[in-house]
Specification:
The chain is of the alpha+beta class. The chain has three helices and eight strands; from the N terminus they run E-H-E-E-E-E-E-E-H-H-E. Strands 1, 2, 3, 4, 5, 6, 7 and 8 form an eight-stranded mixed sheet that branches. The longest helix is centred in the C-terminal third of the chain and has 11 residues, at 106-116.
Length: 139
């Protein structure tokens, strides 16, 4: 099967430079459209998101891990392994660090995710995506 290509916006300021530098290779994205082997490129905005030109674009990087999750107002549920972690747990602190959250705490990760998305009582389907960073500058 041919790899699909995605151009993904970055709007969380602390994460933008970290993604460009290869210090952050993970993102949590609402929905379930990604699969392992897909190619992702990230971009920013010159002004208002979705209403201005792109300010940068990364090369395409291959997704090496895609994990389905559900986001709730009080934490994240992962079916693999079958468990729920509240925002105040060490697991969420580790996830926040990998995701480029500043400060890298589960509580801040929760604030960012619940601030970016309306979280229904039944949870928001999302994915943790992880890509392999390369210094390749071809677009």
């Amino acid at each position: 099967m041919r790899a699909r290509k995605w151009n993904i916006p970055l709007t969380y300021p602390p994460k933008i430079q970290a993604v460009q530098d290869g210090d952050c290779t993970q993102s949590i994205r609402a929905g379930d459209k990604f699969r392992m082997g897909d190619l992702v490129s990230f971009h920013g905005w010159e002004g208002r998101p979705y209403h201005s030109k792109w300010s940068f674009r990364t090369p395409y990087w291959e997704l090496i891990l895609v994990e389905e999750i559900s986001i709730y107002s009080n934490g994240i549920y992962s079916p693999w392994p079958d468990r729920f972690c509240g925002w105040d747990t060490p697991e969420m602190d580790a996830l926040a660090k990998l995701d480029g959250i500043c400060p890298p705490t589960g509580e801040e990760l929760g604030r960012v995710l619940t601030g970016m998305h309306k979280i229904p009582d039944e949870g928001l389907l999302a994915q943790i995506i992880l890509w392999e960073y390369t210094r390749d500058t071809r677009r």
